[in-house]
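Thiamine-binding protein domain-containing protein: structure tokens wanted.
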Amino acid sequence: MKTSIDISYYPLNEEYKAPIKKFIKALEENENITVKSNRMSTQVFGQFDEVMEAVTKCIKNAFELPNSIFVLKIINMDRE
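Answer:
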């Protein structure tokens, strides 16, 4: 099943740009998903299991930074 996820990441510290860029780069390293970013959010597209695995792993790594917030919208279709 195809899925699309819209992700907004809010690291709650003064140096917020570097963690966001690191998160997006980590997502982009996965060859099995498509990642598109803009100023408001990052969209991830692909097969459900592959997308969820990549997103879960990247969020877990980002949570090493204290006080991080993620907002996700998950759709069970390819909205690419």
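The chain has two helices and four strands. The CA atoms of residues 27 and 36 lie 10 Å apart.

Cheers.
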